[in-house]
Amino acid sequence: MTILVAYVPTPQGEAALRAGVHESRLRREKLLVVNTSRGDAYADPRLAQEHDLETVRRDLTELGVDFDVRQLIGGRDAADEITDLAAAEQVSLIVIGLRHRTPVGKLLLGSAAQHILLDAPCPVLAVKAT
Amino acid sequence: MDNLTNLLNGFGDVLTPMNLLLALLGVTIGTAVGVLPGIGPAMTVALLLPITYGLEPTQAFIMFAGIFYGGMYGGSTTSILLNTPGESSSVVTAIEGNKMARAGRAAQALATAAIGSFVAGTIGTVLLVLVAPQVVKFAISLGAPDYFAIMLLAFAGATAVLGSSRIRGFAALLLGLVIGLVGIDRVTGQERLTFGVPQLADGIDVVVVAVGIFAVGEALWVAAHLRRRAAEVIPVGRPWMGRSDWRRSWKPWLRGTAFGFPFGALPAGGAEIPTFLSYATEKKLSKHPEEFGRGAIEGVAGPEAANNASAAGTLVPMLALGLPTNATAAVMLAAFTSYGIQPGPLLFERESSLVWALIASLFIGNLLLLLLNLPLAPAWARLLQIPRPYLYAGILFFASMGAYAVNSQPLDLLLLLVLGLIGFGMRRFGLPVLPLIIGVILGPIAERQARMSLQLSGGDLSGLVGGPVSYVIYAVIVLLIGWPLLRRYVVRQDRERSVVG
Q1: Is B63:B52 a contact under the CB 8 Å cutoff?
Q2: Count of domains in chain B?
Q3: Is residue B497 a part of any domain in this protein?
Q4: In this complex, which of B36, B84, B385 lies closest to A44 when CB atoms are compared?
């Protein structure tokens, strides 16, 4: 079984990663760190750059966690990628970061977190940035 | 003094709430399209042209002028933060600008680009006020053969000087000339290249051509080459400059302006050559040559100023002669025609208030752009996060609407698609777009001048060579086109000399 962390290079993403590490130690399960982007804009702040991923790899190696880092850029929504991956990889827990959103923001844009919470085939742990 | 009065009257026309609002709208749209790579001011003016039919011509041109200048400002933001030049004229800015941004000096790079653009744009517009009426005085004395020669020079300049390959340039020019031929011959009344389709008798509207080649062609190209990898945007705060940045920037600004304006004003100028020249000069003159290649502020300040000064210079041939030297000027000339205004040397006389309001709006637009770009640069950079499918869906919507609105005939939509495919093919095979647009717009005018001179001479070809002006211009054209051959000869002679010596 694996614990999937939906990683983004933001405080929320870092919080999710920390929670994921904690869970993987408790459960003695492998950690799968995933970063996704639709990849169709000129710039995407939620796409982890190589140096972000390098930092993640270094930190996780230092912590002695059994982990794997994947980046998926396939033109699909982050939520779809995460839930599909969770179904395919026998994931026992998905860890995601949550951020505060304004009512107008919620009205205008869908929420990837909500999508994952409702569609995931396994329990989801949602953490806030501290 | 006459011009000063005219200019003040122009300011009087622009400084109404409605016109100021349109100027603000223009510079905002201009900056936005400048920031986004692949979408330039030429495409935007072409897309908005049918929508502005409801406006007064003066108001429409105030907006277009804002888009024209705004595109220049926006392009530098993308070059600096993303290393993806929005336009060929900001390629040089990306060299040092992106290095500066990577070294944590994005704020200073953006500031020197914006303030340099403002300085150069303002000086360039002042020069425009001084130079354009003189050019008009000279131009009125010219006859049809001279005009024909000047237009041939513009063709040769757009194809042989700009761009990497002459063959491709001429191929694009010929495509444009052929598209320009479609329709009824004005002199004999014969139908040309209409294939019996009655709707083609009036020719293909320039708006349909511009929108098809720029917008639909670009959209197809992006759809075919959607790079599924977003670039890294360097985060940036508010642009600002320290005292040493000011000290190192002001001379490159002025030198860049001096390079940019004359090149823009020449019928074969463009912004690429002066930006490169400015970069090379700053590199040579800099007190910190070791910083070049690693983010020297002079390497951003000079080319950015040159870029904007040449944009102002472009307006000299456009307003004084009716001659476009870049794509946006070409589309703006098409806009003049669609408003029933005849571009050419008589424009200053016949449409005096329009021209001076346009020039006054350039001053105001420049100021608005400085206010808009300096504090808001981070907000503009966020535009790059729009997913391209959404962006191009919007562009295609405006493109189809605009093409249909021109004549309200469904055939134009078909033409739009065909022209879009041609635009796609041109991008695929590396054909430059500018010669095509210049061919479509200037081709019919050049033909009229040529036929006029031939009619005056009774069909004798010597009628095409008018006076000393046309002799000089033909000599320049021969030089431009023959330069690769000549250069080989000159270089060989040099070598032989060095062997002998």
Answers
A1: yes
A2: 1
A3: no
A4: B385
| Domain A2-128 architecture | 3-Layer(aba) Sandwich (3.40)
Determine contact, residues B28/B69, Cβ cutoff 8 Å.
Answer: no
Per-residue pLDDT band for B424 (boundaries 50, 70, 90) equals: very high
CA–CA min distance B234, chain A (Å): 10
Both structure tokens of B383: 């535009």
Residue B285 Cα to chain centre, angstroms: 29
Residue B494 belongs to some domain of the structure: no
Q: pLDDT tens across B277-321, in order? A: 898 888 888 888 888 888 888 889 999 999 889 989 999 989 988
pLDDT at B498: 56
B225 contact A CB<8A: no
Q: How confident is the model at residue B80 (pLDDT cuts 50, 70, 90)?
A: confident
In a domain, B275, yes or no: yes
Name the residue among B124, B369, B376, B396 with its Cα closest to residue B254.
Answer: B124
In a domain, B474, yes or no: no
* C-alpha separations of B293 from A53, A102, B171, B447 in Å: 28, 44, 36, 48
Structure ipTM: 0.73
CA-nearest residue to B388 within chain A is A41
List, for residues B400-418, the tens digit of each pLDDT value: 988 898 888 899 999 999 9
Per-position DSSP letters for B218-242, written without gaps between them: HHHHHHHT--S-PBPPPP-------
- Best CA proximity match to A46, nearest among A72, A23, A20: A72
What does each C-alpha distance from A60 to A18, A20, B137, B164 come to in angstroms? Answer: 10, 11, 75, 50
How large is the average pLDDT for residues B427-449? 89
Q: Among candidates B142, B191, B148, B141, which has minimal Cα distance to B451?
A: B148
